[in-house]
Amino acid sequence: VQKHTATELKDYERKTTDAWIVNTRDWAVNNYKEPGLIQGSLDAMSAVVNDFAKRNGYSSDDEVVKSLKQDNAKKLHTAVIDRMLANDEDMAATAHFNTYKDAFGVDTAAMEAKLGTASTDGEAARIAPQIFSEMGPKRDIDPVNIAQMTAFVREKYADKPKLLKAINTEIRQMGSDWNAQQQEREQGNKATVWRAVEQGVSLKSIRTMPEYLGLPGDEQVTVKNHVIDRAEILANRKKEKITDAQWAGYWKYSEPDNLANMTENQIMNLTPT
Fold first, then answer.
1. Residue 242 has pLDDT above 90, yes or no
2. How close are the terminal C-alpha atoms of the chain, in Å?
3. Which of 77, 102, 103 minimizes the C-alpha distance to 92?
């Protein structure tokens, strides 16, 4: 009974110590920006391990105890670096690693590779917006010249192929986002103009609207012709003749599935159809 009790107590003590270490590590990771907290947590964990070892017949210099301390330190620093990288703090993560590099032992190369990738991505994320700001579109209606920007990057960063690739990836994504926003703005401008048409706003007033002025020339002509045609029909009390294209549109957009995939602006922009 005494032997069983001693074993159970030792197991309970080990689990309690492990839980305390995990909680301390989590606290340090969640508050890693507080000065001195990480080193303080490491010192506290080492003290707890020393006490545990002493109660169980080990000295603080025993290899088992040293290995346990090393493992605790590596887990803490790895968790802190992972949190920094998740928060896009690649430079801070690299600085932390360089400060506590000895704690990683044989896993140093793996962490260096991880930080190298994160550093490249982080640097690209900082450089790409600067290039896009300087060489990209300046007005909402301006197109994106991706080729010009990527050519500039290839010339400037030819000696850093990984960084070059990462920057160009960022620029292409920013160009794609710009085009999507531009299309969305154009759809919004068109819808605003067609709502004005439906509300009976005069062509003279419509032609002064910023949304109308922001439309491409062919879209402006479509609006103008539609307003003139409708005014002529109403003035002469003629029955509007439905064209083949309008019949086709009627059947197409009578299908609920087609409408379900369209925005309200896109539907409004079907006015001339």
1. no
2. 91
3. 77
Show Cβ contacts of residue 185 under 8 Å, excluding neighbours closer than 6 positions.
140, 214
The amino acid occupying position 219 is: E
Number of C-beta neighbours around residue 149 at 10 A = 22
User: Which residue do the tokens 């003279």 mark?
Assistant: 204
Enumerate long-range contacts of 228-232, CB under 8 Å, 24 or more apart.
228/203, 230/197, 231/203
Question: Quick one: average pLDDT of 13-41?
Answer: 88
Q: What is the DSSP string of 133-146?
A: HHHS--STTPPP-H
| pLDDT at residue number 129 | 95
Question: For 32-88, how does the pLDDT look when each residue is reduced to its tens digit (9 = 90+)?
Answer: 998 888 999 999 998 888 888 888 777 777 888 888 888 899 999 999 999 999 998
* CB-based contact 206:193 (threshold 8 Å): yes
Q: How far apart are CA 243 and CA 13, in angstroms?
A: 86
- Contact between 94 and 115 under an 8 Å Cβ cutoff? The reply is yes
Q: Which candidate, 80, 64, 65, 87, places its Cα nearest to that of 24?
A: 80
What number of CA atoms fall less than 13 Å from residue 220's CA on the CB side? 13
DSSP one-letter code for 103 = G
